[in-house]
Write a structure and sequence with these properties.
The chain is globular and about 45 Å long. It contains 5 helices and no strands. With 119 residues, the protein is mostly helical.
């Protein structure tokens, strides 16, 4: 993948993540109040975005891919656990954040994922 394509992919993912957070976090907070726990987790979505940017540096070395994926899962697990323990989100809010992040990455790399996903 060329640098231009990587920057385009990161930009598209960032825009979709921002739109997802707007519609699944900030609008529900305006409707039901700021203390709701079922809104999409901005922490999870932001972490996924940063990890996605890091992936483009890691994917150049095949030996680092699996450790980076394990590291990413550990980071997301720690953030999720912390958000539940402080009662900032419930499982729905964390799942929405995960869906926004992963969905945005899939949309930004649709040519790749279109070939991988079949029903």
């Amino acid at each position: 993948m060329k640098n231009k394509d990587k920057i385009r992919s990161i930009s598209i993912a960032g825009v979709y993540m921002a739109l997802g957070i707007l519609f699944l976090k900030f609008i529900p907070m305006l409707l039901w109040g700021y203390d709701i726990t079922f809104d999409a987790s901005l922490h999870i979505t932001s972490a996924i975005f940063v990890l996605f940017i890091g992936w483009y540096f890691i994917d150049q070395n095949k030996n680092w891919r699996i450790p980076y994926l394990i590291f990413s899962l550990v980071v997301l697990s720690i953030i999720s656990t912390q958000r539940i323990l402080v009662n900032a989100h419930n499982d729905v809010g964390l799942l929405l954040g995960l869906v926004v992040g992963v969905g945005s990455i899939m949309i930004s790399n649709w040519k790749y994922f279109r070939k991988k996903l079949e029903f």
